Amino acid sequence: MGSDNAIERAHRLLAPRIAYLIGTVNEDKTPNLIPVSNLTSVSTQPQQIALAVHKQWSTFETLRTAAGFTVSVPVFGQLEAVWKLGARYSHFPTAGPVEKLIASGLPLDYQASEYGPVLSSGIGWMCCRIIARLDLGGDHGIVIGQAEQVWFNPDYLEIDGTPRGTPHPVMQQTGNQFTSTADKFTSVPYF
Fold it and tell me: What's the family (predicted)?
């Protein structure tokens, strides 16, 4: 049987989860990029995703009025930089979003999307226009984004998005515990 406070950790059963980088630009035109693992596909026709962001973060405030956001998928070798981008969570000392982006050392493209910066050396990225905002009363707010642009890095993915080798995205188990994917893919035949 579970402990009395196990329900407060129920989300840990959903781990490990890919740590995506969510790019935004606030009303003052300041770019930002934060790691978020609460993201999932909710439609494939059209391509739509649900993103949940903690309400205490400035990214949540930006998403309340922004037209869209970006999603980048970093590789495991970029973990230290991803952790720096999570400054509110990791306690990485930074003077602000722009300084944090510079300190991460990641190659970022600020021109690919008006919605926010993208990681130009990760597994790939997409730009999403916000089509709905939800508040279910929890500590995270939810936005639904519809993909408008996507880039699959040919170093990691085929032109159709299928893996080329093993991409190894950053995956968060919990807190500051991370892993990468298994070293081997297995395919099973369709029936």
Answer: Belongs to the flavoredoxin family.
DSSP-assigned beta bridge partners for residue 146: 48, 129
- CATH number assigned to the domain comprising residue 103: 2.30.110.10
**Predicted confidence (pLDDT) per residue in 50-103, tens digit:** 999 999 999 999 999 999 999 999 999 999 999 999 998 899 998 899 999 999
Residue 83 to residue 89: CA distance in whole angstroms: 9
Q: What is the pLDDT of residue 180?
A: 81
- What b/e readout covers 148-166, taking b as 16+ CB neighbours within 10 angstroms? eeebbbeebbeeeeeeeee
Residue range 136-163: mean pLDDT, rounded: 97
Among the residues of the chain, which ranges form H helices? 58-63, 79-85, 87-90, 97-104
Torsions phi, psi for 77 (to 5 deg): -65, -10
What are the C-alpha distances in Å from 169 to residues 30, 102, 166? 27, 22, 9
